[in-house]
## 1
Amino acid sequence: MASKVNISARELHIGYGTQQIANTINFKLNEGQLCGVVGINGIGKSTLLRTMCNLQPALKGEIKIKDKSLDNLTSLEQSKQLSVVLTESIASKNLTVSELIALSRQPYTNWIGSLTEKDKEFIQNSLDIFELNNLKKQKCYELSDGQLQRVLIARAMAQDTAVILLDEPTTHLDLYHKVQILKLLKQLVKEHQKTILFTTHEINLAIQLCDKILLLDGKNNPFGSPSELIEKKYFETLFPSETVIFDTKTGSFKVNK
Ligand SMILES: Nc1ncnc2c1ncn2[C@@H]1O[C@H](COP(=O)(O)OP(=O)(O)OP(=O)(O)O)[C@@H](O)[C@H]1O
C-alpha cells in the first residue's frame, strides 16, 4: 500500500517582504517519516518552519497538508492537522505540566473549553508516552530544559495532528538528552504514523536518525534520505573544509585539525 503524503512544499520561496531568504524548496513527506532541516546559521531554517505553520506568508510556491493547500485551511482545520513547537520561551510557564498539555485539546473542546473523556485520554496517553506522570503537577518554570522540551513535544502529541513541526528541539540539551529527544521523535513517527519535521544543528545525529533530510544550502536545497545526500556529496561543501570536513566513510563531520 502506498504511504500517504502528509506535508509537501513545491517551488517554495521564503523570506520577509521583498527580502528572499531561501528559494525553490521542494519536498514531500509521508506519514511515518522523520525529517531534519539542516543548514548553516541564518540560512532560513526557522523562517521555513514559521512559513510552514502560516505564521508568515510564503513569497511564492505552495505548501500542502495532505491534499489541501495550507492557504485554504481555516485556523481550526490547521490546528487539527498541524502542531508546532517553537523555540520562543512559552508564555504559560506558570501552568502545571498537565495544564499545559491540556491546552493542546483546545481545537477539539466545546466553547466552554471543558475536556471530554476522549480529551483526557489523549492527555494521559501523552503523559505516559513521554514518562511525565511524576512531573505532571509540577509548574513548567520548575522544569529543566530537557524536561520542558519533553513536555512541549507531549503537548504536540496530545494535539493529535498528522504533522508536527519543531524548531531546534535539542538546543541546550546534553548529548544524552539530545539523543533521547530525537529517539522519541523517531518512535512517534514509527509507532503513531506521524510526520515530523524539525530544524537542527545536530547534523551527525540527524544523519543517523532521520528518514529524510532537507539541506538548506542557499542553492539547490537538496532533499532526500541521508545516504542519498551523502552519495551525492551534498554535505561536503556545507562548511569551509579548512575547518570542518565530512567523512563519507563514517557519514559524519569531523574537525579538520
Ligand atoms: N523578522 C525578520 N525580519 C527580517 N529578517 C529576518 C527576520 N527574522 C529572521 N530574519 C533573517 O532571515 C534570515 C534567516 O533567519 P533564520 O532565523 O530563519 O535562520 P536559521 O537558519 O534558523 O538560523 P540559526 O541556525 O542561526 O537559528 C537571517 O538573515 C535573519 O537575519
## 2
Amino acid sequence: MSNLSVKEPLEEKQKLSSSSAITRVEDRFVYQDDELIDKAFNWSQFARLFGYIKPYAKQLLPFIILMMVLGTITKLAVPYITGAAIDKAIQPVSGAPSLKLLYGLTALALGLYLIQWAANAYRIKYTNIIGQRVIYDLRSDLFSHIQRLSFSFFDKRPAGSVLVRVTNDVNSLQDLFTNGAVNVMIDCVQLLGIVVILMLINWKLGLAVMLTVPLMFFVSTKLRKIIRLSWQEVRMKNSRINSHLNESIQGIRVTQAYTQEKENMKYFDNMNASSKKSWDKASALNQSFGPLIEITGGLGSMILFWYGATLIASGEIMIGTLVAFASYVGNFWDPINRLGNMYNQLLVAMASSERIFEFMDEKPSVADKPGAQPIPRINGDIVFDKVTFEYVANRPALREIDLHVTAGQSIALVGHTGSGKSTIINLISRFYDIKNGTIKIDGYDIRDVTLESLRGQISIVLQDTFIFSGTIRDNIRFGRLDATDEEVENAAKAVHAHVYIEKLPKGYDTEVEERGNVLSMGQRQLLSFARALLADPRILILDEATASIDTETELRIQEALKVLLQGRTSFIVAHRLSTIRHADHIVVLDHGQIKEEGTHAELIQKQGIYNGLIEAQFRFL
Ligand SMILES: Nc1ncnc2c1ncn2[C@@H]1O[C@H](COP(=O)(O)OP(=O)(O)OP(=O)(O)O)[C@@H](O)[C@H]1O
C-alpha cells in the first residue's frame, strides 16, 4: 500500500513538541470572548432571558404568584398575632388576661403556618416545572443554532469552549429559573410588606430601625462588584479546564504514545490549582457578605431595643408591640441577605446568558442569500473560475483556481500536504465562501442556491470517518434517515461491507461507540461508503484514508469505490496510487495553485511535480 502525501511521524512529533511549548503560555485555552470580564448589567439581555418564561407564563405564573402572595401574607401575619397575643391576651392594658383569646390566636397562628407551608410547597413545585421547561427550551435553541453555524465559527474556537456553553452556562441558569427569580419577588414583597407594617405599628420606631438600611446598601453595593468579578474569573478558569480536558481526551492516544502524561498532568494541575484558588477567593468574598449584613443587622437590633425600651418607658408602646417589631426586623434582614446572595447568582446567570446569547446571535458566515432558490437535481458539471480563497486574511489557501469538471467524471486531487486539496472539497459544498471568482454547478453559482438543496446532493466521506454512538444500522442510515432496513443492507452489500457486518456479534444491530473504536480503519471506511451510497448523492467527495490497510481490505475498498463512483461526479483527495490511476482526471496542486492536470500517463510523461511525487513514493516503498 502506498501513499502519495506521506505524513511523517516527525510532523506529528513536531506538532506535539510545539504544543508543549505553548503549554507554558497561560492563555492557551482561552477564547477571547470568554475573557471579557467587566461588563455592565445588560437589561435587554435580562428581558430576553425572561422571554423564555413567556410560553408558560399564562398557564402557570398566576398560580405561582397566588401561592407567593399567600405564603408572604401568612408569614407577615404571624408576628402581628404574636404581638397581639402578648398585648391583648397575656398582659392586656386593662382587664384580666384571657386564655380563651390566647388559645384562639395560637390556633390562628398554627392555621397560618399550615397555609404558608402548603403555599410554599406548591410554589416550589410549579416554579421547578417552569424552570425545567425553560432550561430545556434554551438548551434546544442553543444546540440547534450551533448546528447551523459555519465551519469558520468552529475554526476559531476550542471545542471545549463550545461545550461549556451548552452545558455549564445553561446549567448556571437553572437555579435562577427554578427558584431564584421567584425568591427575589417574594423577598421584595416581604421587604415592602414589613416596611409598611412597621410604619403602621409605630412610625418612629420604624424609622429608627431603617437608619441602618443605607449602611447596608453601601456595604452590599461595594462588595457586589468584587464578588461578581471573582465569580467570572472562576468560570473563565473552568472553561479553560474544560477545553483542556476535551483536547486531552481527544488526543489521549498521542499523549500516551509519546509518554507525555506527566507533562500533561503538570499542566492540568496548574490549571486545576488556579481554578481552585479563584474559587476559594470568590467563595471567601461571598461568605463575607453574610456576616457584614449580620453586623449591620445587629446594629439595627441594638437601635430597636434601645429606642423601643425608651418608648415602652414613656408608655407610647407596649411590650407585645416591641416583640412583634423585633420579629419583623428579624424577618427584614433575612430577605436582604438572601437578595445579596441572589444578586450574585443573578450576575453569574447574566454572564452565562450573555455567553449563550452571543452564540445564538452568531450568524452563520455562510447562509442562504435572500431569495435563494433550490438547485434542481444536479448533473454534476462543475466549474471553478478564478477562485481565490483565504481562511485567514491575506494568506490565500487557493489562488486563481480554474477547473472544469464534466458530469460523471472522477477527479483525483493530489499534492503535497497543505497544498489545498481539502480546501477545494470544502468549497464545493460551500462550507466557506470564496473571496474572488465563482464556483458553478450545472451553471448555477453555488451562492445563489439554497445550502440545503446543494448539500443534500453532495456526500462527503472523510478520512477520519465519524461513527456516531448507536448501531451499525443507525450509522449507515445516517445517509438517508427514511431508508428501509432492506435499503440499508443493500447499500452495505454493494460496497462489500455486508460480509464483515454479518460476522459481528449482533450483525447490523451491533452497538458501536462514539468514533467507532470497535471497528477497524478499513471497516469504518466501508461503513462510510455504505452511508454515502445510501444517500445517493449527485456529487461525491472523498478524502481518502492515508493509513495503511491490508491488501484484501484495499481490494475490497477499491471494488466498493467503483460502485460508489458510478454515475456521479466525484472528487477524491487521493493518496493511493490505485485510486489515482483509475481517476478520469488528475489535478496536481502546489501552494494553493493548480500546477498540472491530465491523466496518469500524460502527467508521467510531463516529468513534472506529479512524476516527482510518484517517484518519491516508490523511493519510500
Ligand atoms: N481551518 C483553517 N484555518 C486556517 N487555515 C487553514 C485551515 N484549514 C487549512 N488551512 C491552511 O490552508 C492551506 C491548505 O490546507 P488544506 O487542508 O487544503 O491542504 P491539503 O492539501 O488538504 O493538506 P493535507 O494533505 O495535509 O490534508 C494550508 O496552508 C493550511 O494551513
